[in-house]
Amino acid sequence: MSTIRIAALLLLVILLSACRGQPFEEPPRFVQPNMHYQEKFTYQSENRFFEDGRADRLPVEGTVPRGRLAVDVALHEGLDENGNFVTDLPLDVSRSFLMRGGERYYIYCTPCHGNAGDGMGIISQRGLIAPSFHTDTMREMPYGQIYSAIYNGINTMGSYRHQLDVEDRWAVVAYVRALQLSQYASEEEVRALGIDPEELRAQMAE
Amino acid sequence: MAQLFPKWTNKLPKQVQLLSILGLTAVVFFFWYFGSPKYLEVGYAPVQPIPFSHQLHAGQLGLDCRYCHGSVEISSAAGVPSTQTCMTCHEYIATDSEKLQPLRDSWESGLPVEWIRVHKLPEHSYFNHSVHVNVGIGCATCHGRIDHMEVVMKSEPMSMGWCLDCHNHPEQYIRPVEEVFNMAYEQPPNQYEFGKMLVAKKNVAGPIYCNACHR
């Protein structure tokens, strides 16, 4: 009888101490790690052959990936031939272009500048205060300067050039302009779109 | 003639039978339970060089996954963020935090922060994030509620059976593409019909031939 009890107790201890899905910190062990580890480097792996230990090497200084040669200064840096900010979008605007810009804006700019571009993003409330886009200086800002804020960063705002590629940067610039228009439309402009401002106001009040 | 076998041996065959059945069952159970990736891998939550919290950044602050895992839509790897990405905020936020010392060291030296991989398939199998994300498989389906995790924990076994379960029946898990990055998405009650509709619309077919994943 006692052996059965001991066996039952043992089983219980094993079951209770080792349930599936409990957090643990040491790397998982495998029953049979056949070809789990191979003599190749995957992303984020380490290569001690190099001093910095990176298996993903950085491109050699001065090399350019195919198709990424940035010779068009207006397109890639937002500057015209005199070094001034361009005042026009170098790409064609379409509906999908703006939608793409909106999506990217939502990912990368909303945390600080806020969904509506009013500078009330969550990070602004935590200490890194971003300006609103709805001031006269911002509305008159040339396209190139907004682009430059993304590409080079400005004062306390970091550069987003690594997260956004050229087309996406311009799409975001276009979207920022659209946001500015959306918050600064006159009643005539709204009427011209076939919307009655009185009705809208009544709806908002509800 | 003396008895060759004493009397107690009469019970022996039965006992051996019973014990071997129990023993074999125990062995099978042991491997089935403890040898499965559900036991060996689910729950892996290593201590990272910086105590980075998704619960704070993705949950409370509501940052989109792509702010940091930017390549998830365009390449096989989701990637961990560079020091530059963290520094867009942490150059000015929590600048005197002890916990962020390794980040500032990395910013000065140019050496990467050595994040520890949590999810890693055996190197004989290949996975691609962009294919899954662009047809509408949400991060939460495979990684769990990351936005509730202080420390990233592996929450799915990621075994071959798990991959194939979905490849055979993607309609159980698929969601509209706009909802992929929404952690709080809940499946509609008619998921089966809804999923079937999405699968048909996008012509989705998870591959089950071996060389899709073993090349």
Output the keywords:
heterodimer, A: 206 residues, mainly alpha, Cytochrome Bc1 Complex, Chain D, domain 2, 9 helices, 0% strand, B: 215 residues, 11 helices, extended
Query: How do the SSEs of chain B run, as a string of H and E?
Result: HHHHHHHHHHH
- Which spans of chain B have pLDDT < 50 for at least 5 consecutive residues? none
Please report the total strand number of chain B as a whole number.
0
CATH H-level name of the domain at 73-205 in chain A... which superfamily?
Cytochrome c-like domain
How many separate helices of chain A? 9
Rg over CA atoms of chain B:
25 Å
**Mean pLDDT reading of chain A:** 86
How far apart the termini of chain B lie comes to 72 Å
Q: Tell me, briefly, the overall form of chain B.
A: extended
Range of strand content of chain A: under 5%
Question: How is this structure best described in words?
Answer:
The complex is a heterodimer of chains A (206) and B (215). Chain A is mainly alpha-helical and 206 residues long. Helices cover 42% and strands 0% of the residues of chain A. Chain A contains nine helices and no strands. The longest helix of chain A has 17 residues, at 166-182. Chain A is flat. The relative contact order of chain A is 0.09. Chain B is mostly helical. Chain B has two domains: 42-80 and 115-212, no CATH class; 81-114, no CATH class. Chain B is 43% helix and 0% strand. Classes of the chains: A mainly alpha (206), B mainly alpha (215). The interface between A and B is large, with 43 and 45 residues.
